[in-house]
Every structure is written in structure tokens, then in C-alpha cells.
Amino acid sequence: MVGYRSPKPLIKVRILVPVQFFLMGSLVSFIRGSYIEFRSKVEWPKWSDLQSSTVVVCVGTVVLALFTFGVDSIFSKFIAGMLSVLTNLFK
């Protein structure tokens, strides 16, 4: 017995081809617009401003790290003390 195979639908090709051209066109347009905006509309910081901002960020990071270390060590000592009290209580 010979089976009947239906042909593949062409609707998929007819719909996807214009969509792909539209997406590629909008992608190229987006990249072109982004380049123009970066070149002419963005105000880039001066080198001295960039250096001072970097120093502020580094100092803030060190201060935050020291604060976190201090709080963590205080809490760990507190919890270790509470555990030792509880273990001595239930011995």
C-alpha cells in the first residue's frame, strides 16, 4: 500500500522571510543609532574626575568590607558564646 504524504506548508517561509528582514533592519538601525548617540550625545568624564571617582569607590569598598568583617566577627563570637552556654546547660 502506498502512503500519501502531504507537502510541507509554505506559509512558514512566506511569514518568516519578511520578519527576518525587518528584524535585521531594525538591528542595524539600533546599532547605528547607538553609535551616533555615544559619539555625539554622551558627555564623557574628564580624566581627573574619573580618577577621583575611582578613589572614592575604592575607599568606600574598603570601609564597607571592614564594617562587614567587624559585624561578622561580633556575631560569630556571640553565637559561639551562646552555643557554649547552651551546651554547658544541657550537660
Uncertain runs: none
Whole-number mean pLDDT: 83
Estimated radius of gyration: 33 Å
Largest sheet: none
The tally of domains stands at 2
Q: How many beta-strand elements?
A: 0
**Which series of helices and strands comes N to C?**
HH
The dominant shape is: flat
Tally the helices: what do you get?
2
Instruction: Quickly give the structural class.
Output: mainly alpha
**What fraction of the residues are assigned to beta strands by DSSP?**
under 5%
Helix content: over 70%
Write a brief caption for the model.
The protein has 91 residues and is mostly helical. The protein is built from 2 helices and no strands.
Describe the protein's architecture and organization:
Helices cover 81% and strands 0% of the residues. By secondary structure, the protein is an all-alpha fold. The longest helix has 43 residues, at 47-89.
